[in-house]
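CORE FACILITY INTAKE
Project code: CF-77B
Contact: R.S. (postdoc)
Sample description: multi-component assembly, two entities in total
Requested service: structural model of the whole complex
Turnaround: standard
Below are the sequence entries exactly as provided by the requester. Do not edit them.
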Amino acid sequence: MDTADRILDALLAGVHYAVRRLVMQRFAAMERELGFRWEQTDGDAVFLRRLGYSYEHLRVLCALNSFYQVVIGPLSAASRKWRTTDFDMLTIRHGQLALGPLEAAQLREMVTRFERIFGEIEMPFRFGAANTTGDLIFVLASFERLRQEEE
Amino acid sequence: MTIGPDDHWLARVEASVERFAREFKTTYAKTDRQLSAMFEIGCFHLLVDFYAASYQVTPEQLDRNGDFSYLTTPAGNPANFSFVALNGEDGEFEIRQQVRVTSRLHPDIAFTPDLLVLRRGSRIAERLDEDYAGGKKRYFSVDSSEVVAIHECKSLNPFPELLVSFIGFVAAAHEYFDDADGRITFHEDGRHLAPTLFVGGSARGLHLRMIRAMRSVLPINVIVGIHSGTANLFGIDAEVRRFDIVDARSTTES
């Protein structure tokens, strides 16, 4: 088991099977695209390899991205204060689910902490929001080129 | 600053993720349906906030605890769930969730948008239909003539087929898709939000161009970046289509 697999295991242990399946499906799709791009002469992938990025580094980013897209993203949307109105103070109930000011604050804290993971590994959070592996590689290469220029 | 990952990068990210999972698993461990509902509720908040700028916004039919009871399936009776009443200069309206719409095109064409703005007091018809649940469950629907705007929520990344499919929703629901007929006017200060597809993921490049093009030729919006919060519905540079209703039916008679 490599790091990306252990990360997904940690995040998804005890999570509802349908959610786990959605995350793993997205990760598998990203991984397939990564395998293709990593083996080909994709200019950005070659550049990243030269900087010391390995296939596993990219798999880890794909794993975090997959979890964000399926789990954190919708919860982040639910927790956001677009504008301050009295309606924010209301608790919305859907079956067992409750979303009021307290729950929204907890979700916002969770989202902030998830974003902080990227900070701890010196990566911008926008990797979490990349649509595809191709986007992720492009954004990462652009980010590293910018860091190079700054140095 | 280090260029590229250092030797401990993989170990650091694993430790960070494990800490995060330990601390927040109970917060994020939802079912797939709950995640979908949460996203829709986020879009619902966004729509209510949009209307709050021009209308008095009042939650109605709250439950016995004063909470908003959210409907997420067309099988539920809308009369038993909460909605948001809108009171403005151009009349009264309501924001509801998951009310089936009978299309203007044909009475057998019906579909259920995630969110919709109706004229206040719109009649939500109910009937038993042998072709629906064997005639054992009530079938609820509102006529498309009562619908001010439908809105759809997709917790996905934008892709062309998703964007184009929304055109079918709007064509089925709204006469103004073909011909506004003077009853509504689209302009940048309009009080109502044109039918909108709310999309979780962000877009760039070709997809953004496609979204702009769709907005330029159709009475619709596609709002992306709901997950990351980059969606722009209120800012002065917000590129959204809005409209006003100018026909007499927009004001309730009561």
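Facility notes:
- The longest strand of chain B covers residues 147-154.
- Chain B touches chain A through 67 residues (CB under 8 Å).
Invoice: internal transfer
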